[in-house]
Design brief:
- Pfam families: ThiF.
- This is Molybdopterin biosynthesis protein MoeB.
- One of its GO terms (biological process) is cyclic threonylcarbamoyladenosine biosynthetic process.
- The termini are far apart.
- The protein has a single domain, classed as Rossmann fold (3-Layer(aba) Sandwich), CATH 3.40.50.
- It has eight helices and eight strands, in the order αβαβαβαβαββαααββ.
- 36% of the residues lie in helices and 20% in strands.
- It is of the alpha/beta class.
């Protein structure tokens, strides 16, 4: 199929064909999540569950790829579904217009091959990590704030976020530093590459390692945790 022909020098045909059978859950359809959803769909992931209870507002326009003047006031998850119908109608998208909580997290993420953390509050990140661990699903974590970002891939036996967020500060770096247009796209791209490595079981995911990104100094460092 011509749609995926540019995948073929980096993926085998068998790997490419398998992508259509995988299910990925993206929690958060804003700055990180919008880019993640777009790239996963273009890559050819067959089933996406996209989760977000929020609606777009004017403050999202500087960085959230799914936001524009026509989507203001509209559901982020439904907008993501509508966008992917245009981008790749071969991809099935299930929008879930809910906030993830301890009570509903397992029901939302069960049955997926990978979960992507694209939320901006630490409590929800920890809920995702703990629930993924309990039901044996890898989690690709991303966080952004100003010039900075981080990515790690958390397998069920790991508790990487317990190390990263020892203080469990409720606010998170994005609330303090804000976000420009470029940080979400960069971090989301790395998250998608991690999702792909986990799915095709090739390459070296950031297991028990965290990539720290400083775009102000253009410094990229991987630290073992």
């Amino acid at each position: 199929m011509k749609r995926y022909i540019k995948n073929m020098n980096m993926l085998t045909k068998e790997e490419n064909d398998r992508l259509g059978k995988f299910k990925v859950c993206v929690v958060g359809c804003g700055g990180l999540g919008g880019y993640v959803i777009e790239m996963l769909a273009r890559l050819g992931i067959g089933y996406l569950t996209v989760v977000d209870a929020d609606k777009f507002d004017e403050t999202n326009l500087n960085r959230q790829i799914l936001s524009n003047t026509d989507t203001l006031g509209k559901s982020k998850s439904i907008t993501a579904q509508e966008r992917i119908k245009l981008v790749n109608p071969l991809v099935e998208v299930e929008p879930i217009n809910k906030r993830v909580t301890k009570n509903n997290c397992e029901d939302i993420i069960k049955g997926h091959d990978v979960v992507v953390d694209a939320v901006d509050n630490i409590d929800t990140k920890i809920i995702l990590q703990d629930t993924c661990s309990n039901i044996d699903i890898p989690l690709v974590h991303g966080a952004i704030g100003g010039w900075y970002g981080q990515v790690t891939t958390i397998f069920p036996e790991d508790k990487t976020l317990d190390i990263l967020y020892v203080s469990r500060d409720k606010k998170g770096i994005e609330k303090e530093l804000g976000n420009p247009s470029f940080t979400p796209g960069l971090v989301a791209s790395i998250q998608v590459s991690e999702v792909l490595k986990v799915l095709i079981k090739r390459g070296k995911p950031l297991k028990r390692r965290v990539l720290f990104i400083d775009t102000f100094e253009q410094e990229y460092e991987v630290i073992d945790v």
